[in-house]
Specification:
Number of helices of chain C: 6
Oligomer: heterotrimer
Radius of gyration of chain A: 21 Å
CATH superfamily of the largest domain in chain C: NADH-ubiquinone/plastoquinone oxidoreductase chain 6, subunit NuoJ
Mean pLDDT of chain A: 80
CATH architecture of the largest domain in chain C: Up-down Bundle
Mean pLDDT of chain C: 82
Radius of gyration of chain C: 21 Å
Largest sheet of chain A: none
Shape of chain A: elongated
Chains: A mainly alpha (about 80), B mainly alpha (about 350), C mainly alpha (about 170)
Distance between the termini of chain A: 33 Å
Largest sheet of chain C: none
Largest interface: A-C, 45 and 41 residues
Order of helices and strands of chain A: HHH
Number of helices of chain A: 3
Structural class of chain A: mainly alpha
Structural class of chain C: mainly alpha
Shape of chain C: extended
Number of strands of chain C: 0
CATH topology of the largest domain in chain C: Four Helix Bundle (Hemerythrin (Met), subunit A)
Number of domains of chain A: 1
Number of strands of chain A: 0
CATH class of the largest domain in chain C: Mainly Alpha
Helix content of chain A: 55-70%
Distance between the termini of chain C: 64 Å
Number of domains of chain C: 2
Low-confidence stretches of chain A: none
């Protein structure tokens, strides 16, 4: 029988899924993709003219505002 | 390449040629199977002794003479002989199969980690990304294992472990971006070779700090221990594992510890570079052991952090520091401050 | 078609693994097994990328798909299936026949097109001639504007998903 510190187990075992951290999963998917793109750029950083690196940095910078807003939504516990 | 044996007299030279070939030695003996098992078992003993000294005790003492050095073997034998209990209505194939998959995935990245200039099994051009891709498979397997043991404590522990590891993977990746920019390659051998003059812990110190903290959270070590916290969740996601299954999971966890220590050594501490009086792999092992000590010590010192606070810290503070660090490294590199070291 | 070239063993193995895993992902009764089979089929596709000389894309596939998307799917499965019958009731016997019928039609049409196009089809696979060190320059120099559009797209997707999943209390 499943272990419940000595008592007889009660209730459904897989019932409570914690929804509080769901926005972090969505953010993880997006930043996973972003990270892989950044690795492709970072490898050849020394070989690219600075103007083109600027675009990649702009790409990163443009993601800052949605990151902040998503974090604000995620930390607001009544949303979930 | 050796010729396949055609006559019975050829078999013995063929076997000798295979066994002494560099490929065989790297796969089976040195950065491969035997070395991995020996080091992982040594790490379990080492952790117990270290924590014991921190907590003013002695630790394993009796097994195998002075210092209890054979304690891991004794533990292994004890765990093999224990009964494997599968909970009621647990998912049997997953419950038995996932620990093996965890060990496999824990050992797989060692194929690309270089222990010396030529002591690497597979020198992939995408080595660093390979390690991260394999490491990103861990949280989902832990979640499936926790779901498969049909029980409340493991399920909660598995969910918390998933969110914790997922939260700290992104800062880990982005902090290594600085190292990749400094070295100019994802190939781990080239990253180590670029540290010949100066270890990357100097110019990329902030990355080192972020990576160190994130790897402690990935390994679920105190102070990030809540998914396996003893007073809270019995033993977290591996509560229902017993006997041989627990041993396999235990091995997988220590393999991951050794993997993170080796990765920190390769990325930040200059890999195998050191004064020439010791061979290169010995320097690597010494540095990896120092890093492992630094990871193990907080377990005896610090209190546990609450899980929602640590997930929040991972996403808000650590990720922002990692992203700011990318801009800092770009600034450092483009203004040529680091050109004295050839970077 | 030149039938004297033996089929590539890597291709055959990868195809078998990917297709079997995909079929199991759709047909398995236990949803968690379906998610795991989906992960295996994604790893098979990453194997295809490796065999086509695109190792970076293979690592991206594993890290993003198997590492993130499958986690989301698993989480959703665990969220939805609350009650004890964790099995999916479906699978009438006519579905298999319909599947085979459609697959047969597709195979016949592809074979017909190949036979009609004849000698103008390429017979050797095009290997990626982009070395990894060139991946960054191509991305940054040739496609800067798509990068910015990608940033906006990712932000839109993230915020949209969050807003949709939000509970208004």
């Amino acid at each position: 029988m499943p272990f419940e510190s000595g008592q007889v187990p009660q209730g459904e075992a897989r019932k409570r899924v914690v929804m509080q951290y769901y926005p972090y999963l969505l953010m993880f998917v997006v930043f996973d993709v972003v990270g892989m793109f950044l690795f492709a750029w970072g490898m050849s950083f020394a070989d690219i003219p600075a103007a083109d690196s600027f675009f990649v940095l702009l790409f990163l910078f443009l993601l800052g505002a949605p990151l902040g807003y998503a974090l604000k939504m995620a930390l607001n516990r009544e949303n979930w | 390449m050796v010729n396949l044996p055609t006559t019975p007299a050829d078999i013995l030279p063929f076997i000798i040629a295979v066994v002494t070939s560099h490929t065989f030695i790297t796969i089976v003996i040195f950065p491969g199977l035997i070395h991995l098992i020996v080091v992982v078992m040594f790490l379990t003993w080492y952790e117990r002794k270290l924590l014991a000294r921190i907590q003013l005790r002695i630790g394993p003492l009796y097994a195998g003479g002075l210092g209890g050095i054979l304690q891991p073997i004794a533990d292994g034998m004890k765990l093999i002989f224990k009964e494997v209990m599968i909970p009621y209505k647990a998912d049997k194939p997953l419950f038995l199969g996932i620990p093996l998959a965890l060990v496999f995935l824990g050992a797989l990245p060692f194929a690309v980690i270089p222990f010396g200039q030529h002591w690497v099994i597979a020198n992939l051009d995408v080595g660093l990304v390979f390690v991260f891709a394999v490491a990103s498979l861990f949280p989902s397997m832990i979640l499936i294992f926790a779901w498969a043991s049909n029980s409340k404590y493991p399920f909660l522990g598995g969910l918390r472990s998933l969110f914790q590891q997922v939260a700290y993977e992104i800062p880990m990746w982005i902090s290594t971006l600085s190292v990749v920019m400094l070295a100019g390659s994802l190939n781990l051998v080239q990253i180590v070779n670029a540290q010949q003059k100066m270890w990357f812990i100097g110019p990329a110190f902030l990355s080192f700090v972020v990576f160190f903290i994130a790897s402690m959270a990935e390994l679920e070590r105190l102070p990030f221990d809540l998914p396996s916290a003893e007073p809270e969740l019995v033993a977290g996601w591996f509560t229902e594992s017993s006997g041989a299954i627990f041993m396999v999971i235990f091995l997988a966890l220590y393999m991951k510890l050794y993997l993170m220590s080796s990765l920190i050594t390769v990325l930040f501490l200059g890999g195998w570079w050191g004064p020439a009086f010791l061979p290169q792999p010995v320097w690597f092992l010494l540095k990896a052991l120092v890093v492992a000590t630094l990871i193990i010590i907080p377990r005896g010192v610090y209190a546990r952090l609450r899980v929602d606070l640590l997930i929040k810290v991972g996403w808000t503070r650590l990720l922002v520091i990692a992203l700011a660090n990318v801009f800092i490294t770009v600034a450092l590199l483009s203004t040529g401050v680091l050109s004295a070291w050839g970077l | 078609m030149d039938l004297s070239i033996p089929p590539d063993i890597t291709f055959v193995v990868l195809t078998t693994i990917t297709l079997l895993a995909a079929i199991m992902a759709l047909q398995s009764k236990e949803l968690i097994y379906g998610a795991i089979s989906l992960a295996v089929s994604f790893i098979g596709i990453a194997g295809f990328f490796v065999s086509l000389d695109a190792p970076y894309l293979a690592m991206l596939q594993i890290a993003v798909y198997v590492g993130a998307v499958v986690v989301l799917i698993l989480f959703t499965i665990m969220l939805v299936r609350r009650d004890e019958p964790d099995k999916d009731e479906m699978g009438e016997s006519s579905e298999g026949a319909a599947g085979l019928w459609i697959a047969g039609l597709l195979a016949v049409s592809i074979a017909g097109i190949a036979a009609l196009a004849g000698p103008s089809l390429p017979t050797t696979p095009a290997t990626g001639n982009l070395p990894i060190s060139q991946l960054g320059p191509v991305l940054a120099e040739t496609y800067p504007v798509p990068l910015i559009i990608l940033a906006l797209l990712l932000s839109g997707a993230l915020l949209g998903a969050l807003v949709l999943a939000k509970v208004d209390r």
